[in-house]
Amino acid sequence: MTTNENSAPASGLNPEHAPRMKQPWAELAPDVYRAMVRLDGASRKGIDPVLAELVKIRASQLNHCAFCLDMHTKDALAAGESVERIVQLSAWEESRHFYTPKEIAAIELTEAVTVLTDGFVPDEVWEKASEHFDETELSHLIAAIVAINAWNRFAVTTRMVPGHYKPGDIKH
């Protein structure tokens, strides 16, 4: 559905908010954007693509990043993830049966790294993750969590507008 910030869609929904910058931040800071793309690409090596999308969705939920939620739920669906598992992700603690123990370990680590204001990454979260991922995989998983948190902060701060992304448009 396409609208502009001054008109409501015919369905009666609220109009889109306007982005804060006239030009996308990626165009204004292309070296930073390219470095983020390289970090994101390097972090994905050795991580299951569906698991990577679950991590990106969960971090984006915690960071209230609508743009990244739009992108990564669409990418997850395109990668074969089910609607049910995506919907349940926000309440994963009560719907553990939708996820493997390895996915739960990655989701718990994602939450601990994303919400550092609650304290350090707990030893029990680290220990569970290290039971399911070797140190190389953990290094890439941590990098993927750090990368999506950085993407979330760019998108939330500049008020990037969700709803227009199509899988394959942008890779990060």
Question: What can you tell me about this protein's structure?
Answer:
The protein is mostly helical. 58% of the residues lie in helices and 0% in strands. It has helices at 25-28, 30-43, 49-62, 66-78, 83-88, 101-114, 123-132, 135-158.
Gist?
With 172 residues, the protein is mainly α. Helix content is 58%, strand content 0%. The chain has a domain at 53-158: AhpD-like (Up-down Bundle).
List the defining traits of the structure above.
mainly alpha, 0% strand, disordered N terminus, 172 residues, globular
Beta-strand content estimate: under 5%
Second rung of CATH, namely the architecture of the domain at 53-158:
Up-down Bundle
Low-pLDDT runs of 5+ residues are 1-7
> Radius of gyration in whole Å, from Cα?
17 Å
Shape: globular
Please specify the SSE layout and strand pairing.
Layout: H1 25-28, H2 30-43, H3 49-62, H4 66-78, H5 83-88, H6 101-114, H7 123-132, H8 135-158
